[in-house]
C-alpha cells in the first residue's frame, strides 16, 4: 500500500452516552479512547476511540444529529441502520477480545470460518453489539 492509497479514516457511530461508549470500547474492545476529558469538559463535540494509527471511531451523541446539515437528509442520520462494522485483529487479540466480551456478559455470536473479507478468507469471526446496538464483526486472518 502506498502513502497515497485510499484508506478508511473514521466511522461515526451514534451513541446515547459518548463517555460510556468510550469506556466500553476501551475496557471491552481494547481500543484507545481519545478526547474523552475534552468532551466531558465541553471542549469537544464528541470523543473517539482509535482502531489503529490511521482509523478512529467517532462516538457522536444523538443530539448532534440536528447539526448534520451538510447534505440533504443528514439531520435524519441518527439511528440510520448500518449492517455492521468489521474489525480485524491478530489472533491473540481476537481471542482476548472474545474473552473480555464474555466476561462482561456481552452477547457474542458463534464463530464463522473462512468468511470473505478485505484480506481474503478470515480464519474465524464473530459478531457482537455495543451498548447502543451497533453491530460489530471481529475477525482474524492466519
UniProtKB/TrEMBL annotation:
Q: Where is the VOC domain?
A: 7-141
Q: Which InterPro entries match?
A: Glyas_Bleomycin-R_OHBP_Dase, Glyas_Fos-R_dOase_dom, GlyoxalaseI/FosfomycinResist, VOC_core
Task: Tell me the PANTHER family matching this sequence.
Answer: GLYOXALASE DOMAIN-CONTAINING PROTEIN 5, GLYOXALASE FAMILY PROTEIN
Designated name of the protein: VOC family protein
Query: What does UniProt list as this organism's lineage?
Result: Bacteria, Bacillati, Actinomycetota, Actinomycetes, Kitasatosporales
